[in-house]
From TrEMBL:
Species this chain originates from: Marinicrinis lubricantis
HTH araC/xylS-type domain boundaries: 679-777
Pfam families assigned to the protein according to its UniProt record, in alphabetical order: HTH_18 (PF12833)
Keywords attached to this entry: DNA-binding, Membrane, Transcription, Transcription regulation, Transmembrane, Transmembrane helix
Keyword DNA-binding belongs to the record: yes
Taxonomic path: Bacteria, Bacillati, Bacillota, Bacilli, Bacillales
Membrane-crossing segments per the record: 30-52
Protein name: AraC family transcriptional regulator
InterPro entries given in the database record: Homeodomain-like_sf, HTH_AraC, HTH_AraC-typ_CS
SMART domains on file: HTH_ARAC
Length: 787
């Protein structure tokens, strides 16, 4: 109740202020409208009345005649375009002699192309109702956008009579029936024999006109779409008519036929109605058509007379009520100003005495501008959070579809200066937290990480002009650095790393592992650079001490140590699971364990390799749209696997508890029709991956669906995008050739559908090694197995 009272008081105060200010501007407007509203109406009424109806009738008649000639020309053009289009299609090489012998069911692609062509022809002109293609052969067929075998002998005979016509292209006044064997109502059709250049045609293309659209086109020849319009052939038969007044139309048709003239204009009276009649010839292929347009003169002159009298009366009355109208008009003009004042007014706003309405609006606008500046300031305060969100998306690869130019423009929008800059990432991992239980109670990881990120931010402010700190909330902090190349020398970066380690050790008393990426000048390379940093962090010594790892300084020995892990088999296992090949996945897991044991791997090495394989599989499961937590019912799969010591038990556990549940869930989600199409696409990729022109659009055309649908189904069934599957298939084939053949790397690139300059980059991104490093690693493994 109090709110209602307060609201009523506010409205009363606003109305009171508006009444106080409703003076200066309002009075000026009222005087202006008094002058302008009184005189123009009288002048216009007298002017129209003096010129009279006859003058306007003559001008309108001439305009109608001119308009009708233009419409006739337009109608003639419409029919001419139809004739030209049909002739063009009849000479199309697609309708050649082969159609007379072609098996349309076996060569379904040709059948599909014909139906597409008929659909295109049907939509090429608005006057076309439908398009039919009849082919006379042992078993006659009819295309009516779809393919039919004709069995109706009466219908077949009708089309064969079309073929016997002496002209290749002609107009006919009767349709030849539908695919069902029935007959249509009277329609106009355009017929062309095919092939167009043949002296012995075997079929006909038939266009049926849309009668209602043709009639609407004819109605444009009369003003206001009133009157009579129709077309006659050279025999005097009615072709098209609007059927608005059938009896007068028949009398007019008889009048024109008995006159003996082919063109002319005359006034025709029928039952106290006068019509201005114009008729003429439109030359068609094999005959001349006569167009007739009869416009009632009253439809032209009556509105003018009524309008003239109405204006005179309104003008006379307007003189008496000029003051009233001026007051009302001024009120309406003043309404937008009044609304602005109400919007700018508030309950606490005092009345602006001595100011007119616009001065008050200007004063309030200044206050609004001040508030806008205040909001802009608040937005700038939120800019660091927006920057952090952008960096997280950039590092995690969510912006990989953006170009280098787009990424730089976005960074400029967030207030960064990207000119003459290099970029580098520092990954800071807090270690030994579990040994500090006496200092930090359990569950305080986020608080410790927050403190570390603040320390890193303070140090970066004094060292770099532009940077971004990312708190990952899991005892790890990321530092994104933007700086000129001279301030990112390796020695300077190492000094900053040591300073960061000392500060965190002194304040938090916790050890850290700091990994430095290689510098880059491309924003689009940052996601790949971050992946290298995460991978390099795995080379740290498994001891609780400070460590600095530099991606560019990692030793060859460390890289070779990681190379013992069978990456290619891991990719094969994941690929088999994505493809739903359970037996293949089981076999590859057995081969994976066998290869680990063949390299004399210790128990802990085998266990770590299996845990890494499990992590990769879980990552693939999440990418496919399935939640591992729900799939495994909340079980800690890594803990269960770490308790198993025997390789055979590891194999059985991985197959029964990980691979089988995933494949069952994936099978339950996929529809069998979708799976069949996707499997056909997968098979096509395996057969033609070596072709450089294979693409999503190419596979979609072969499957008979659009590329968007195939892409969505492919992702739904396999869990990966089409291009990722194609890339994995090509990389698998390239890996096999690198292991089992001595072909040059450039030749292998061509064999799997890549150009060499792209092959090296894509292979390293997928495998982690260049093709030459991968071949050398496998050669060393073979030599070690022999000895």
């Amino acid at each position: 109740m109090r709110n209602k009272v307060r609201k009523g008081r506010h409205n009363d105060s606003s109305i009171k202020r508006s009444k106080q200010m409703k003076g200066i501007y309002y009075r000026k407007s009222l005087i202006l409208f008094l002058v302008t509203a009184s005189i123009p109406g009288l002048i216009i009424g007298v002017f129209i009345y003096l010129f009279g109806v006859n003058f306007i009738e003559r001008d309108l008649s001439q305009m109608h005649k001119k308009q009708m000639n233009e419409r006739v020309h337009n109608i003639d053009d419409q029919f001419a375009y139809l004739e030209m289009d049909l002739s063009h299609w009849a000479f199309n090489p697609q309708f050649n002699e082969n159609l007379k012998r072609l098996d349309f069911e076996y060569y379904f692609q040709n059948t599909r192309d014909i139906t597409k062509s008929l659909v295109v022809l049907e939509g090429s002109h608005p006057l076309i109702q439908d398009v039919k293609l009849f082919i006379d052969r042992e078993e006659p067929v009819l295309f009516q956008t779809e393919y039919y075998k004709l069995k109706d002998t009466k219908l077949i005979e009708t089309y064969r009579q079309m073929l016997e016509h002496q002209r290749n292209i002609y107009w006919t006044g009767w349709s030849n029936g539908s695919s069902s064997g029935g007959s249509d109502s009277k329609k106009i059709q355009l017929v062309h024999k095919i092939p167009g250049e043949s002296s012995s045609p075997y079929g006909v293309l038939v266009i049926t006109l849309n009668e209602s659209l043709v009639v609407n086109l004819l109605k444009t020849m009369t003003p206001y779409n009133e009157g009579l319009t129709f077309l006659m052939n050279d025999s005097g038969q009615m072709i098209f008519s609007d059927n608005s007044e059938k009896t007068p139309m028949n009398r007019l048709q008889e009048e024109i036929l008995t006159s003996g003239r082919t063109t002319g204009t005359f006034v025709w009276t029928d039952k106290d109605k006068k019509y201005s009649v114009s008729f003429g010839k439109i030359k068609r292929l094999d005959s001349d058509w006569t167009y007739v347009s009869a416009a009632p003169l009253t439809a032209i002159t009556s509105p003018v007379v009524v309008l003239s009298n109405l204006i005179l009366w309104v003008s006379a009355i307007g003189l008496l009520f000029a003051l009233l109208l001026s007051w009302l008009a001024t009120g309406r003009v003043y309404s937008p100003v009044h609304q602005l004042i109400r919007r700018f007014s508030s309950e606490s706003e005092p009345a602006f005495k001595g100011l007119d309405e616009f001065a008050f609006i200007e004063n309030q606008w200044a206050k609004t501008t001040h508030e806008h500046v205040h909001l802009q300031t608040k937005l700038k305060e939120q800019l660091p959070s927006l920057r952090t969100g952008f960096l997280l998306q950039l590092l995690q690869g969510h912006l990989s579809h953006y170009t280098e130019k787009d990424l730089r423009e976005q960074m400029i929008q967030y207030g960064w200066d990207v000119s003459d800059c290099q970029y580098q990432i520092l990954h800071i991992q807090l270690t030994g937290y579990s040994d500090l239980a006496h200092r930090f109670p359990p569950g305080e990881e986020a608080l410790i990480t927050f403190a570390a990120s603040n320390i890193v931010e303070e140090l970066a402010e004094s060292a770099f002009p532009q940077f971004g700190v990312m708190n990952f909330q899991n005892l790890s902090v990321g530092l994104f650095i933007m700086s000129p190349p001279q301030s990112m020398e390796p020695e300077l970066m190492r000094q900053f790393a040591e300073q960061t380690i000392q500060m965190i050790n002194r304040i938090l008393g916790i050890q850290i592992t700091l990994t430095m990426s290689r510098p880059t000048s491309k924003v689009s390379s940052i996601a790949e650079m971050y992946m290298e940093v995460e991978r390099a962090a795995g080379f740290r010594k498994f001891v609780n001490q400070n460590q600095i790892l530099d991606v560019e300084r990692l030793g060859i020995e460390q890289m070779n140590q990681e190379a013992h892990y069978p990456f290619s088999l891991e990719l094969d296992i994941i690929q088999a699971m994505r493809g739903g090949k359970q037996q293949e996945a089981v076999r590859l897991v057995s081969q994976f364990i066998h290869e680990l044991l063949a390299m004399d791997a210790k128990e802990n090495q085998v266990q770590q390799s299996m845990l890494q394989l499990l992590a990769s599989i879980q990552h693939m499961i999440r990418q496919s749209g399935i939640d591992p937590f729900k799939l495994f019912h909340g079980r800690n799969m890594f803990e269960e696997l770490s308790q198993i010591r025997e390789p055979g038990n590891m194999h059985s556990w991985l197959v029964s508890h990980v691979i089988a549940p995933f494949l069952d869930e994936r099978e339950a989600r996929a529809d069998w029709q979708i799976k069949e199409i996707v499997q056909q696409t997968v098979d096509l990729i395996e057969q033609e991956y070596m072709k450089q022109d294979i693409s999503l659009e190419y596979c979609a055309d072969l499957a008979g669906i659009n590329s968007y649908t195939l892409s969505k189904w492919f992702k739904q069934v396999t869990g990966v995008n089409f291009i990722d599957w194609l890339t994995n298939t090509r990389i698998e084939a390239a890996s096999k050739l690198l292991r089992e053949s001595d072909d040059k790397i450039s030749d292998i690139a061509n064999q799997v559908g890549y150009q060499q300059r792209y092959f090296n980059r894509i292979f390293k991104k997928q495998i982690g090694l260049t093709p030459s490093q991968y071949r050398e690693m496998n050669q060393q493994a073979k030599n070690a197995a022999v000895h």
